[in-house]
Known about the structure:
- By secondary structure, the chain is an alpha/beta fold.
- It contains eleven helices and nine strands.
- The chain has a seven-stranded mixed β-sheet with strand order 3-2-1-4-5-9-7, sandwiched between helices.
- Strand 2, helix 5 (100-112) and strand 3 (119-123) form a beta-alpha-beta unit.
- Helix 6 crosses helix 8.
- The radius of gyration is 18 Å and the shape is globular.
- It starts with 7 loop residues before the first helix and ends in a 6-residue tail after the last strand.
Amino acid sequence: MTQTHFSAAERTASDYYDSADADRFYEEVWGGEDIHIGLYASEAEAIAPASQRTVNALIELIGTLPSGATVVDLGSGYGGAARRLVKEFGAHVEAINISAVENARHRLLNQSAGLQDQIQVHDASFEDVPLPSGCADVVWSQDAILHSGNRQQVLQEAARLLKPGGVMVLTDPMAADGVETGSLSAILARIHLPDMGSPDRYRAWASQAGLVREVWQDQTAMLIRHYSRVREELLRREQELQTKISPEYLQRMAAGLGHWIEGGRQGRLSWGLMRFRKPLQEA
């Protein structure tokens, strides 16, 4: 199912992730099948296993996942989490993502794993999901909603999609609670957005959508460590990477990662795991 009418913020994100440089960088450096922030067992741990540990933690946060459950993945990237949910739990996954390049790789990886019938990849916006209301046992999202220009609408869509009693689990890079937008100018310029979410904002947006936040696990130290590890890998492999990725992109990426690391160390950023639940009955 294809959707082509995206907001300005979504078009910016799509253009970025569809670029050849970004596709190669995220595949080569960021973690391969998983392109989100990792949970690290040590400072020098490789990026890929740390990223897989985040998937483990979100699966644990779901609680019981019945066999054949429907999971809607908002911002599904290359589909690492989707394939994991299918292989281990027999889930059916509806993957929502606006990057045509990522979606093409996602479909190929699904085919290679023989999972193309269990995972439906939609070229679509998570602000306007082309799925029926009440279709999802779980809504899943990793480090994607920050790219939305209307995050409250994304939470409204999650609430619409969930069955009563269903849960949404998510991670997202955010501003720390109470931080003024002006202090995040370098980071906001990088993601081409006027503001960011925060833990309290997500709680409020979810509440307005009829969802109850049950869990907030602050793991901001992992945001700092992850961006530090990615930057270390970029610099360590810079000469090799320049044969595949433009030097200008690598230079901008190194500078951008530095802004995220600095913002985290100065207490201006936040990251962690959240679980929201749709009540069995509306209040």
